Amino acid sequence: MTNINAAPIGVFDSGAGGISVLKRLWALMPNEQYLYYGDSANAPYGTKPVETIRDLTTKAVEHLLDEGCKAIVLACNTATAAAAADLRAAYPDIPIIGLEPALKPAALSGNHPTVVVMATPLTLREEKFTALTKRFEDECDLIKLPAPELVTLVEQNKMGTAELRDYLETLFAPLDKDRIDCLVLGCTHFPFAKREIRAVLGRRPVFFDGAVGEAKYTKVVLEERGLRAPDDAVGAIRFESSDPQKIGLLEQLFAFDL
Ligand code: DGL
């Protein structure tokens, strides 16, 4: 094992949402070092033009590479849709693991289920999701539900408030709640609002998100490339944000029971 094995895994999101992925990575690989970078000063990403998101993501990933990261986990569906392909082309030797809404397991979970995919406007309109939709549209009734304000509400730590519940009531009001079989949380901020979403939708829908899958896939990629930290290494997490006032929120969400 060389020094590179002891290097941190860089975990990136537009803000605090990627903590929902970091929690799964930590549970699976507690012997690794992690450098989490949230670009909260520029969140939300999902309502910005794709070029802007690509530039912001590239800048953040370059920062993580300057810090010596051995791999990059894009813990953000929006950044993945906008920038993953370009980043992989620019850094072919660095594993760059991306994330997409968990439509596949939801669509295949039953007999032609009704699947609601909640995500940012950018994720829902980009080519990556359109291609995914084409593969599974015959398997389910798909409803796309952009929820950009939910990102801001999580960034503002509004979990448990009437403001968050009111927003969700309005968001889901046009849908027939009794028909929703599956709800895909296609943005890493959304699992932090799961309790409130459940309160609005009731017990029926089964929730899907991509965090566990991304963590497992990261482990596979690191193993394939011989990049895992030694089994007896002691892991650690460093939190960074483009808005230093958000460090407390990152730590708080890491302790959140998902
Ligand atoms: N957390 C990000 C995602 O998974 C998006 C948040 C944003 O719009 O900034 O898509």
Note the main attributes of this structure:
four-stranded parallel sheet, five-stranded parallel sheet, binds D-glutamic acid, Rossmann fold, 11 helices
Task: Tell me, briefly, the overall form.
Answer: globular
CATH topology of the largest domain: Rossmann fold
Give the uncertain stretches in residue-range form: none
Order of helices and strands: EHEHEHEHEHHEHHEHEHEH
Helix percent reads 40-55%
Question: DSSP strand (E) fraction?
Answer: 15-25%
Q: What is the residue-mean pLDDT, rounded to a whole number?
A: 97
> In the residues, how many domains can be counted?
2
Identify the CATH architecture of the largest domain.
3-Layer(aba) Sandwich
CATH class of the largest domain, please? Alpha Beta
N/C terminus separation: 34 Å
Radius of gyration: 18 Å
Q: What would you call the structural class? A: alpha/beta
3D architecture notes:
- It is a single chain.
- The mean pLDDT is 97.
- Helix 1 (19-28) links the parallel strand 1 (9-13) and strand 2.
- This protein has helices spanning 19-28, 50-66, 77-90, 103-107, 121-125, 127-136, 148-155, 162-172, 194-201, 211-224, 247-254; strands spanning 9-13, 33-38, 71-74, 96-97, 114-119, 141-146, 182-185, 206-209, 236-241.
- With 258 residues, the chain is α/β, with parallel strands linked by helices.
- The radius of gyration is 18 Å and the shape is globular.
- The chain is built from eleven helices and nine strands.
- Helix content is 43%, strand content 17%.
- The chain has two domains: 3-99 and 211-254, Rossmann fold (3-Layer(aba) Sandwich); 103-209, Rossmann fold.
- It has a five-stranded parallel β-sheet with strand order 4-3-1-2-9, with helices on both faces.
- It binds D-glutamic acid.
- Residues 13-15, 17, 43-46, 76-78, 120, 123, 151, 187-189 line the site of D-glutamic acid (DGL).
